[in-house]
User: Fold this.
Amino acid sequence: MRVVIVGAGEVGSHLARELSTQRMEIVLVDKLSAALSSAEESIDALTLAGDGAHWQVLQRAEVKRADLVVAVTGSDEANLVIAALARAEGAARCVARVDAAGFYRSLASVEQGVLGIDSLLCASRLVTLELLRLMRARRANFLAFFGANHIAACLLLLHDGSSALGQHAGSIRSAGGKLVRAVVRDGVLRPPEDITRLEVGDRLLLVGGPTSVAIAQDQLQDTLKTRRAILVGGGDVGSQLARVLTETERRVEIIEQDGVRCEQLAQELPGVHVIHGDGTSIALLRDLQIQNADCLLAVTKSDEANLMVSLLANNLGVQSSFAIVHRHGYSDVYEHLGVHGTAGPHEVIARAVTSLLPNDGMLRRERLPDCSHELVELSLGELTDARMTVSDLALPPSCMLVGVSDGEGFHAPAPGFALAPHSRLLVAEPAHAYRDVVKRVRELGRAKR
Amino acid sequence: MNLRAVAWYSSSLLLLVAAMMMAPAILAAAEGQARSMQAYLGSAMLTTLTAVILRRLGRAKPSVLHRKDALGVVSFVWLLLGVFGALPFLLEGSIPNVAGAVFEAVSGFTTTGATVVADVDGLSRATNLWRCEMHWVGGMGIVVLFVAVFPQLGVGAKHLFKAEVAGPITEGLRPRIKQTALSLWWIYAAMTLVATGCLILAGMSTYDAVCHAFSTLGTGGFSTRSASIGAYHSPAIDWIIIVFMLLSGLNFALYYGVLRGEVRGLFNNYEVRFYVLVNVLVVAVIFVGILPRHGDALVALRHSAFQTLAVTTTTGFMTEDYETYPQLARFLLFACMFMGGCAGSTAGGLKASRIYALLRLATRELRLVMQPQEVVAVRLGRTAIPPGIERTILVYGAAYFLLFFAASTVMVGLGLDIMSAMSAVVSCLSSVGPGFEQVGPMQNYGFVPAGGKLLLAFCMIAGRLEIFALFAVFSPECWRR
Assistant:
């Protein structure tokens, strides 16, 4: 498979490195030959110096033969132009990185079909969601996002004192509706209808949109609006995180150094406490009594500041700290030093692009800890029959459809729900049924073609 | 440099050499030459044994091959090639002394074609095949073959490739270096096949045709006859070899372009134009010089073109003794030995593109003398040379001449006359083969003292790996942890 990557910065070179290890043919294009020569040292790829937003350069890179063109330069506009040009040149698929959150119509981090470009990726939103996932995953047995971040699947252990104990599993409702898709008891996954009385030690499989799962998770653990989160850095990631966190946390504070930006944040984010100051200043952190905070997220543009803030927070007694990592290879160091989780634009974009590569229906497979079943994400492909519904899927009997997503967002898998082309299905299946499930979904695609 | 990595990769490369030895062994077995068969089987076994030991030493190698390690692997392997390539000569007894056998093997793998054997006709058929096979594999490069054949070396493959295929600007043809290596080998193999077919049609025996096609495409120069191509007295064979020598002296990347429909690239390329121009000028001078002797213009053209291309492509075949040519013609041939073929070809030498770049740099200096404030980019064809490359070209040119003078001094000290010493050294550095006077086309290197042979063998490897790749391994920086 031939992939042309325009932009050899942290994101572009990390993506090239990841893809070249998967035996793909990579052509890396950048304006700066210095960036290319440093990438050459560690990546088996063809490099080409030139402005990717120019026809000639794209022609030299032979984008017409490319299976995928990824535009990840530092400029949103340039990326849009590159992807649109590549599309016009005849590239099979084009992906552009557009960071401005305001560009997107929906809250999804991936948008499809704009300007003939297959997918637009929002790095700041992908990072936001990844940080959110890491934060929530500390309070769950298992938490993963599927369906281009439209679906969250969470495995929640019931402790003593949970409001759900003793209830019928099928009757539990939370903010997002009925989210309990299954219950794991004694390592076996069962439909919620089978469990009439929930007990301590049962694990609930919650599947829904990321925010509603987060709220449900807190409601079931009786921790909704009990915690305090501190964000250092009020950039794109900071403001998006704050907006999401206000729905679940008791108090959300943003520390931002730039006064003008603080004014803007205060206007944009009702209910968020905006603090003007230097987040790396220990005096300020003490002043804010951050030892009482449950969680700190360092999301400034500087790796050094993020590391410093997270370490200070750990030292001052914050329960968990998370940070953005901008440069490739730093995340291990962060985690070694005690930061609880990191997310970087290069990692999230590489993951998103990988999921956009032509696939044979199977997108992702995740094991559930200590459980008979695993989760598989499948893509439906083209459907010519517009009336196909969930009940037409006819998956193998031991399997359970737990969620569906399309361009619009998450949908509960009600039997009569009409499936859209390219929908993504999240299926819980026992490992031995994996081949049958994949085969069945492929058959559906083939039959419709 | 990680010695385990060097040992592990070298062992794989030695296995390739052992596999190569099976061809002469099979030929000898088929023709019932027991001694040759034993020699080649024995050599293959010794090579395999060494490979197994090296693999054992390198079993805990790191997963990533770094640039330093790649340089180490390539240099080490090229030094090993001399030793293991020499084994059959020693075991068979065709070249009884060690220095001579190593010289012959290095000359084979570096596609020099300088020989210590006075009576080539007296060698066994297996040995002649082995000599030409070394040319063929060494021409495109054994490490390139390794990169093409072995699965998944990752970015290490790139470092290996670049360490062996040096050049002013090495460009990949295809995104993955393995594909590039594979494409180059396919083109090379296909051209060899065509050359073999043409030679058979022109009346050579299959065995001679294969050997000479190997030797021509690798721009080597070993022949199965003492009198080289001249022994056949066939204008058709001469012309076929002339064409294939020229083709082997051009950049193989251009053939890849031709296969993809960019035929014009072959004619628009500045290096090809410059290289052909130089050849035409030299052929014209020699033609005028030897026309009176031959009388027939076509015969004179054939001989002048053959001798010129044999030198400029660094092949070293011959159809007649150029020592009998006029002085100007001889000197031009001597000067051409420095240049060699195009970058990206199987030929050696400074490479036409570097000479052209040096000329352009010199003309820029003229402009700068008159107008020091002017900023002038040096253009090769349509593209300007980046400043970093400018430096490497100049430094490589200087290093080449320094090595030439240093080695020539030693050779004169060993008792060769000045012209013989200089021509022997440049002939080995540029992988031509024959030189002038005592090492002329009708002579051989047998009389050179053992130390001189080893020095010349070292020069051949230095020239093949473009000096710095080999010398880097001897610098303490490479060994520092």
